[in-house]
Amino acid sequence: MGMAGGRPVVSICCLTYNHGAYIREALDGFISQETPFPYEVLIHDDASTDGTADIIREYAKRYPDVIRPILQTENQYSKGITNISGTYNFPRAQGRYIAMCEGDDYWTDTGKLKRQVDFMEANPGCALVFHSAGVKVEGRALTERQMRPYRGDRQLSPEDIIDKVSGYPTASLLFRTEMVKELPDYYVNAPIADIPLQLMAASAGWAYYMDRPMCVYRLGGTYSWTELMKQGDREEKAERYYRQMKEMYSAFDRATGQRFHGAVEHAAERLHFLTKVNTKDYKTVLSRQYREFYRELNLRTRFFIRLEAGAPALYRLLYRLYHAGQG
């Protein structure tokens, strides 16, 4: 654990809401970091109803110099404060760097922070360091999957960050605190926080990817975005999400004087395509216009799209059999 005393070099920013089943793993991952420098854990619990806050209190009592909680008694998100990190965590960060990790994800490598900070210190032009993640799929037999955006360590240009084929694990991100001291509108108004954060990094410099799985991303937790998308009117939700994200990309384009215009347009177009995949609009998905994005999908996804589009009855049968086997 980082040496006590002195000003923290890293501020770990963590958001929790009803993560009672997971939060110990997240906290253990933070406090087991082996660093020659002090760090702090800024944790914000949004009035959980499942005992998450009690677990945080217990850890804060044990590590009072490191764990700095805000435990809400009223849910802020439902009051319209959607930008929790920017409202409650970023402003109190004392570290030179911020590391992100949601309360249902966790770190698995005790050398993670040191490795990332060493790289940042040696490369002042670098705005973001991140790495791959293991993926745990909740609610079904655990299949080992990986969130691995690239093969091998690599430096990424701003355009690479903006116009990327696969997402970056949020629990892997580390960036300079000064980057979030003043938040642009495109960050504040976005429906999700991780993509605009990455865009801010792109406008500040290049990124570096370490091809090591140093965290675990939990897929399909009860309050995850993927689960929420499945509830209610899927088409309408996906369309609204796309509109908000498109506006976010346009605002970023304006804020950066259209320096990255081509990459921004391409990224927004890919998002539109993925919205069509999500809502199963296969006529559009399989159209010539989107062939490039279709080829970016993995083989398994392409197979099921073709099957469902061409033989829906067979697809439904296989789907039922598969889920019966997972039960």
Contiguous low-pLDDT stretches (5 residues minimum) are: 221-229
Q: Tell me what the CATH architecture of the largest domain is.
A: Alpha-Beta Complex
State the end-to-end distance.
Answer: 40 Å
Number of strands: 10
Radius of gyration: 20 Å
> How many structural domains can be distinguished in the coordinates?
2
**CATH fourth-tier homologous superfamily of the largest domain:** Spore Coat Polysaccharide Biosynthesis Protein SpsA, Chain A
How many H/I helical runs? 14
Q: In a nutshell, what does this entry contain?
A:
The chain has about 325 residues and is of the alpha/beta class. The protein has helices spanning about 25-30, 50-60, 85-90, 110-120, 160, 185-190, 195-205, 225-230, 235-255, 260-280, 280-285, 290-295, 300-310, 310-325; strands spanning about 10-15, 40-45, 65-70, 95-100, 105, 125-135, 145, 155, 175, 205-220. Helix 9 (about 235-255) packs antiparallel against helix 10 (about 260-280) and helix 13 crosses helix 14.
What this model shows, in words?
The chain has 14 helices and 10 strands. By secondary structure, it is of the alpha/beta class. It folds into 2 domains: 10-219, Spore Coat Polysaccharide Biosynthesis Protein SpsA, Chain A (Alpha-Beta Complex), CATH 3.90.550; 225-326, no CATH class. Strands 1, 2, 3, 4, 5, 6, 7, 8, 9 and 10 form a 10-stranded mixed sheet that branches. Strand 2, helix 2 (52-62) and strand 3 form a beta-alpha-beta unit. It is globular, with a radius of gyration of 20 Å. Mean pLDDT is 91; it is low at 221-229.
